[in-house]
Write the C-alpha cells for this entry.
Amino acid sequence: MEVGNASLDTLRHSLGRSSRPAWVRALLATGPEGDPPLLVYALVLVGPRPAGWQERIWRYRQGCFVAAAIPVRQLVASLTPGTAKLLELGTTVASMQVRDGQFSWQRHPSRAQHDPLQLPWPWMEFQPGIDGFNDRVYELQAGFLVGIGDAPSFPAFGGAFNAFFYDNYTVTGVSNPPLQRLDIRVLDQRAHFHKVLVRATAIDVWIGGRRPAGLTLELNGVSTRSAIEIKKPEKVTLPLPSGLPADAWLWLKQDGEWVDYRSLGGWSAYQSDDVRFETTVDPGSELSALAARGEGEQLEYKVKLPDTREEKRTTFKTVVAFANGSGGTVLFGVSDGDGITGLIGKLPEQRRRLTDMLRALMRPQPPLHIDANAIEGRNVLVLRVDPNRGQLYALVLDTERPEYYVRRDGTTFPAQPEELTQIVAAQAAAAHAFGNPFGLG
C-alpha cells in the first residue's frame, strides 16, 4: 500500500475520466424540520456494478442508511467546497458540504490485506473530509437504533454501521467508526492478479483485466529475477531454477508505476487467498512431527474432545486466544507426554461434534480448518486457527457473559482491557469495519 496527499482538483480529475456509475452507501443524520438530511459518511465504489448490489434504505428516528447508484458526474459536482450541495441518493436527497484543503489517499493492490471488501481489482482510495455537522449527528451514536418499518434494530450505533456497510451483524465489542468523511474507491481495471500458483520449479501466474497488453510481469527476489511482457489476459509461467527465492515479489508494472503486486514471503509476508503453494508434504509425517514437537505458543494438545462445561472452557479458551493472536493449532487425540493416543469413536462423528461445539461456543466464527487423520489406526483431529486480522473473538459458554482470551508465552490468559483495545484499534485502522459491503470477492 502507498499513501500520500491529494486535493479536490486531483480527485475530480480522477473521477472525471470514469464513465461508470458510482455505487454509494451513505449515512444520513436527520436535519432540522424542513431541511434535507445531512450526509455524515459515505463509502463510494467507482467501477463495474458489484455482484449482488442493490438499492436499499434503513430508517431510524435519528437518521438513515441509504444505498444508491448515482452518475459519477453528480458526485464530481458535489465535490466543490464552500457551500452545501444536494446529492440525490435514490429517492432521498441529502445535503453535503465537502471540506477544502488536502486529504489523504491510499493505493492498494487487489485483495489487499485487512481489506473487508477484498476487491478483485487494484484501487485508489481518496478520503476528503465533510463539514456542516449539527447535534443530530451525535445523537446517532448515543443510544439504541430502533428500526422504522423493516429496518433492523441495534443496541449500538457501531453494530448498525457495520451491518449496513459491511454485512457484519456482530455487535459485541464494536466501536464507533470514523465519520465526517467520504471514502471514495476508484478501481483500476487495466490488469490484476487473478491467481498465483507457486510450484517447486516454476510460478504460474494468471493475469486478468481489460487492458493488460503492454504491462510487464516481474519476479524479483534475492537469488532470482525475471520479467516478461504481457500481451493479453493470460496464464504466464516464470521458471524457478533454484526454487522460490527469499523476499520474492511479483509486480505488474508499466512506465515506473505498479498496477498490482503480490508478496510471496519475507517483507510483508502476506499472501492473499488467490496465492497457492503446491506442497508434497505427507500428512502423516507432518502430524507425527507436530505431535513430537511439544506444546508451545501456537501449538496445544488435547487427549479428547471436551465433555463438561469446564473442559469446554479449558479447550476453547485456547482456540479463542489463537484467534485473537497469531493463530495456532490444536491436536485432539494427542498427549503432551505420550504422543499420539487417538480419539475414541468414529472419526467423522468426532469431527462433526468438534464443528458443532465451535459454532455454538465462539462469537463470531473465526477462520479455521479441521483435518481428520488416522495414523497407525489412531484417530486425530487437527484444528488450525488463522492469525487475527483485526476481529475480536469471544468464548460464549454464557451468552450474557462473553469471555476474551489471549496467548502469552505458550499459556492462555484472560485478555486485559488494553489487549482488547489493541485488537479493536487494529480492526478500525485496518479496514474501518468488517465484511463485504459490495458482494465482491
About this structure: The longest strand covers residues 21-29. The longest helix spans residues 309-324.
